[in-house]
């Protein structure tokens, strides 16, 4: 298997992966969305709330604030372990992180942001500091304690580490120069929405710097009057795009997804052995 990093940003990763089947890559993608755990606020206790927002509305907003979770994966119990503990472990320190928020309006409107949340664990805090929570005017007040725990995207999307996880084929575009009419036609060059084609040295050519932008809409192939353009895709090569929420790094998202998938397969094999299959 060969992996090439096409783009690496704090909240965006694009990988070109060669030597992997579509079924395996799609399994990894699905695990990333629904199985990789992150921290998110799940319980909110209101001591005071005289803002224009109902308690439930504020709790919903707090739950959707992404929290840094790279260290939490190893420091806190899994959702399953905390669930098994029941009421005894409901707010135990190895299951939950406490975040407090307090503020009141003044002569001018005061906005409480995500960076006003004070966390009991410095490793678990809002990934972004300027997410607005509520605006207060005099004499409105808000005082609350929120409890964050590890969870999975299949339980609620607030626990998913990505906003987008998608894969696409790597295009394979061939131009038969014997059939191509060149400068007399240029329909494929003019029609391509991604500007994949260029007319150079008397021939229509595929731009290597634009090839991966191709969406394989086949507009070029359909409009070519001589049938010189053929669009297909590589069989074992894909582009994986991850747009992160900021809860986990791309590295941890990928490593954890593979670990989870591997464990699921091991459990499946073990069950088959127990059943004598």
UniProtKB/TrEMBL annotation:
E.C. code: 2.7.7.6
Localisation: Cytoplasm
Broad enzyme group: transferase
Amino acids binding [3Fe-4S] cluster: 214, 217, 220
Keywords: 3Fe-4S, Cytoplasm, DNA-directed RNA polymerase, Iron, Iron-sulfur, Metal-binding, Nucleotidyltransferase, Transcription, Transferase
InterPro entries the record matches: 4Fe4S_Fe-S-bd, 4Fe4S_Fe_S_CS, DNA-dir_RNA_pol_30-40kDasu_CS, DNA-dir_RNA_pol_insert, DNA-dir_RNA_pol_RpoA/D/Rpb3, RBP11-like, RNAP_Rpo3/Rpb3/RPAC1, RNApol_insert_sf
Catalytic activity of the protein: RNA(n) + a ribonucleoside 5'-triphosphate = RNA(n+1) + diphosphate
Note on cofactor: Binds 1 [3Fe-4S] cluster.
Pfam families given in the database record: RNA_pol_A_bac (PF01000), RNA_pol_L (PF01193)
Cofactors that this protein relies on: [3Fe-4S] cluster
Top-level taxon of the source organism: Archaea
GO biological process terms on file: DNA-templated transcription
All copies of domain 4Fe-4S ferredoxin-type, residue ranges: 171-201, 202-234
An MF annotation (GO) of this entry: DNA-directed RNA polymerase activity
A Gene Ontology cellular-component term: DNA-directed RNA polymerase complex
HAMAP family: RNApol_arch_Rpo3
Family assignment from sequence similarity: Belongs to the archaeal Rpo3/eukaryotic RPB3 RNA polymerase subunit family.
Subunit organization: Part of the RNA polymerase complex.
Alphabetical list of NCBIfam families matching this protein: PRK00783.1 (NF001988)
Function, in words: DNA-dependent RNA polymerase (RNAP) catalyzes the transcription of DNA into RNA using the four ribonucleoside triphosphates as substrates.
Protein name (Swiss-Prot/TrEMBL): DNA-directed RNA polymerase subunit Rpo3
Organism, as annotated: Thermosphaera aggregans (strain DSM 11486 / M11TL)
């Amino acid at each position: 298997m060969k992996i090439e990093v096409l783009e690496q940003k704090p909240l965006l990763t694009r990988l070109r992966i060669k030597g992997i089947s579509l079924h395996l890559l799609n399994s990894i993608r699905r695990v990333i969305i629904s199985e990789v755990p992150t921290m998110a606020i799940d319980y909110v206790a209101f001591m005071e709330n005289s803002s224009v927002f109902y308690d439930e509305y504020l709790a919903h907003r707090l739950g959707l604030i992404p929290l840094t979770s790279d260290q939490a994966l190893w420091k806190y119990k899994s959702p399953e372990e905390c669930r098994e503990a029941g009421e005894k472990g409901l707010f135990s320190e190895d299951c939950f992180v406490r975040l407090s928020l307090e503020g009141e309006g003044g002569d001018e409107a005061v906005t409480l942001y995500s960076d006003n949340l004070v966390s009991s664990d410095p490793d678990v805090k809002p990934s972004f500091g300027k997410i607005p929570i509520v605006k207060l005017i005099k004499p409105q007040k808000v005082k609350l304690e929120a409890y964050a725990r590890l969870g999975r995207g299949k339980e609620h999307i607030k626990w998913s580490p990505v906003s987008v996880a998608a894969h696409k084929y790597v295009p394979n575009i061939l131009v038969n120069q014997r059939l191509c009419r060149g400068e007399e036609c240029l329909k494929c060059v003019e029609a391509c929405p991604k500007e994949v084609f260029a007319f150079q040295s008397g021939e229509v050519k595929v731009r290597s710097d634009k090839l991966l932008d191709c969406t394989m809409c086949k507009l070029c192939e359909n409009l070519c009057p001589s049938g010189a353009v053929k669009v297909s895709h590589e069989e074992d090569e894909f582009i994986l795009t991850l747009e992160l929420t900021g809860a986990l790094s791309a590295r941890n998202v990928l490593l954890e997804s593979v670990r989870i998938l591997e464990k699921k397969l091991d459990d499946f094999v073990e069950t088959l052995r127990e059943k004598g299959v």
